[in-house]
Here is the input.
Amino acid sequence: MGSPTDFLAPPNKLGKPTVMTEPTLDKLRQAFLIGASDEEACLYADIATSTLYEYQKKYPEYISLKRSWKETPILLARQELVKGLKGNPDLSLRYLERKRKDEFAQRSELTGKDG
Here is the structure.
């Protein structure tokens, strides 16, 4: 994967200057690394979501970089959960109830008036 600066737009000689500067791309990266949505990241970077989407059209490889940043909080949470399982039987059971439902989930029988 590249860094955000690999996708900096070349200076625009004509017309309006690009808003996708290094500081803007860094703000987007920071927001995505904490699990922000596209809308939240754009608010933080002070750009319109349409600007982000146009940028992604121009640099489609940025999309996979953004996707990996968005997955980072999930990965960190999983690591913390697994670390916390050791010595914590209640958490371990809750984890197994969700991950191995067939074997560990609590079951309740529903019966009608005839038993």
